[in-house]
Each structure stands twice: as C-alpha cells, then as structure tokens.
Amino acid sequence: MKTPDSRFYCPLISVGTIVLDENESSHAVRVCRAANGDTLQLCDGLGHYADATITKADAKACEVRVDTVEDAQFMRPRLNLGIACLKDDALEEVVFHAAQTETDSVIFLRTDYSQEPKNSDLKKTVRRAELKSLVSLKQSKKPWMTRIEGPIEFDKWLKDYQGDLILCDIDGERKLDLGLAESSANGNAVGGSIANENSTPITLLVGPEGGFSPREIEAVKSFNNGKVHLLNLGNTRLRARTAAVIALGKVL
After folding, report:
1. Could you tell me the residue ranges of all domains in the chain?
2. How confident is the model at residue 231 (pLDDT cuts 50, 70, 90)?
3. What is the pTM assigned to this prediction?
4. Which CATH architecture has domain 79-251?
5. What 8-state DSSP symbol labels residue 31?
6. What is the DSSP letter of 163?
7. What is the pLDDT of residues 178-221, one digit of tens each?
C-alpha cells in the first residue's frame, strides 16, 4: 500500500464510499499511478481531512472508501489579502503564491489606479484564480482553501469592512507581530467547529503599480472600524505582485 505525496480535493468528505471527480481521478490513477488498495489523502478546503482507500482505480471515476474524517486542529486563518486589480496574469500569480500560505481570502479591489479595464467583470480571471487556489491547497497540504472575492470597488469594500487593516507604507514598521501564528496554533476544535478568542479579521492592503491614490491612503489611515497598521517593505520600489508576497512574508 502506498500514499501519493499529494492531497486530493473532495468537496464533500464523509464516511463511506466516495467517487472522486474526473480531474482528481485522473490525477490519482494516471499521474500518480495509484491502484486498488492504495491510500489517498483527501481534503475539502474547509478544515477536514481523510485517508481514503481506493476500491476502484478508475481514471474517470475513482472510488474510495473513507473510514474516519478528521478535523483541523487549528482555526481558519484570519489574515486576508486585498490587492488592487492588475493587468495581464499578475492577479493569478499573486493568488498562486498567497494561497500556499495561511491566507483566508484574496480580495480583488478596483482602485483609482487599477490597471484592468473598468468595464471588465474579470470572470475569467476570478475563475483562473480559483483554480490556482485549489492547486495551492493540495500542494501546500493546508486544511483551509484560500477564497477568492471580488472584484469590488475599493470605497465600497472599505465602507462595509469590519476588522483591522495593514497598509504597505514607507513610514511603517519593518516587521509587525500580530500574533497570527499563535492564534492559529491555539485554536481548538469545538463540536466540529474551530474556536478562538481572537478572531478579528486582518486585511493586508496592496495597491496597483503606482500605489493607492492619496485619497485612498487617507481613507485607510482614517479608518475607524478597526486598528490600522503601517508596514514598510524596504528601501526599493517593488512591483505590485512582488510587494504582495513580500508583505505576506513579513506578517505571517
């Protein structure tokens, strides 16, 4: 019996027989060469895992048996990344990297200096970003899948948002200790849910190329529905996609 060094996505994990979708079935049987009796590690992106034994190694509809479903031993991450809409495939690249970390969601924000067409609904970009997040979920072996939200106008999002903010700013601190690792590690499973006394969301804001507009920066700094932290990313000028990854590394 062998276990492929990968997790397989199954949105509805339960005890009993499960049929994996064609993509996961093909990956298991054709790519990983899994056979009857082998074990697959399943995850649903919602904090649940299971070791599943293959009962029918079908590349289009692989059947597995699950005896026990396990819950993640720490709470869902409370860090989010809000990033301005970018051109080309930059948003997908950011999601691919961010979704490998303990980031709860990536929010696409339409800002004053956003570089995508203003009349674009970004449906294709959002869908591709969701697929990148799924790939990162399985590769990183984390329990929670990073959600993709937006696009949404920055002003509307800020007006409705409740929680703390981190703004990348030249006058900010070089390193912020927000206790994110401790809050995840101290979370406990309670009745099938994850509880922690500190669950205030935190959103890291990264602007487009050229940054947020002065008006938007002032709106963030005067935000009163949570704390505002300023984070310095160093002495060099960074591309937006690079800034997002560097900022996550400094916070997590």
Report:
1. 7-71, 79-251
2. very high
3. 0.90
4. 3-Layer(aba) Sandwich (3.40)
5. I
6. S
7. 877 665 555 554 333 334 446 899 999 999 999 999 999 999 99
